[in-house]
Amino acid sequence: MNTTFDESIGLNTSHTIRNVIRYLTVHLKEFDLTPEQWTVLKRLAANDGISQKALAELADKDQPTVTRILDILERKNLITKKKNVDDRRSFLIHITDKGKNVKQELTPFIEDVFENQILKGIPEEKLEVYKEVLQLINQNMRDRTD
Description:
Blueprint: H1 5-28, H2 35-46, E1 50-51, H3 52-59, H4 63-75, E2 79-84, E3 87-95, H5 97-118, H6 124-145
Antiparallel strand pairs: 1-3, 2-3
């Protein structure tokens, strides 16, 4: 079977993303989080007190998705939403002590999963090239969609 270059890159990228998300979903279940929730919580931990819009940009997610995730994280008492005194139409999002504890507990676990499972056996040089290529592809796409 003769696969075109775009099919090969597209399919491999899609399969890789799906497999990583599936793997993380299984392993994050014991922490009662999804990969999407973890992404938002991690970004918030590094940027406590930011607006929902800014958090959506940092997490590279659309506003409705972030709203849904924040509602779930709030029900789990991992975050709080406070009215923005400068803009009453928006909220500022804060991580709670419980959220900080979950983030602190999960960070070494996630790092271990990536280092010893997902990226296992891949030399650092190849990972650097992979990151560079991904950045170039992302830049090419941003240049065409902005």
